[in-house]
Amino acid sequence: MCDCAACVTPSPDSTPRRRLLLGAAGLAAFGATGWAETANAEVPSNDIGGDEALKRLMAGNARYAANKPNMRDFSAGRAARVKTQKPIAAILSCSDSRVAPELAFDQNPGDVFIVRVAGNFINDDGLASFEFAAKVLNAPLILVLGHNNCGAVDAAIKVLKENAELPGHLPQLVNAIKPAVERASKGDPKNLLTASIAENVRQAVQRLQTAQPVLQGMVQEKKLMVAGGVYDLATGKVTLV
């Protein structure tokens, strides 16, 4: 019987089995390489200006609104981020579940430092968090992000205009937003809610820009930029105010 290689008939399952083994080996090799690259990755620098950071956020928002976000591996750089973080921006966002800043600006893990509270207003705890982001983490930008149809701002309007009574600690939250509603009301706007949301953002921006003893000096020295915007729930677009 001839047993030369040309005459040997492979078993019915030998070729698929061989392919499977080769594929598994390839995946194992790729996985080992990928892990090594991830483990050795460095956290990107945030040594950029506030203007550049804002451009990156707005470019990311344009991708998000167009439903063309960057493809990314969320595990990439995870090991490197254990040791440090270098966010390009710190964001004050409403707690609304429909607003997700990382997604809305199409950013990677570690790119944005986020503080969230219903109504996106500034209190002492939030201020301390932004001092940490700017002074310790060297984030060059703080962005205050409001959104349309904000329930917290709407509640403040109802309290002021209709004497609505709120339970629990909600009155304390509304008290922080009232000044924005009162100022917006003076302009007799067509839509008080829309005007109040924008004004609430502006007031938070102003407080951050003038906050002592840390942020005001950084703003004056051009080491920090503070900006504001409003997120549209329907379109996903952020409009700067």
UniProtKB/TrEMBL annotation:
Pfam families: Pro_CA. PROSITE patterns: PROK_CO2_ANHYDRASE_1. Keywords: Lyase, Zinc. It comes from the Bacteria. Its EC number is 4.2.1.1. SUPFAM superfamilies: beta-carbonic anhydrase, cab (SSF53056). Belongs to the beta-class carbonic anhydrase family. This is carbonic anhydrase. It comes from Achromobacter spanius.
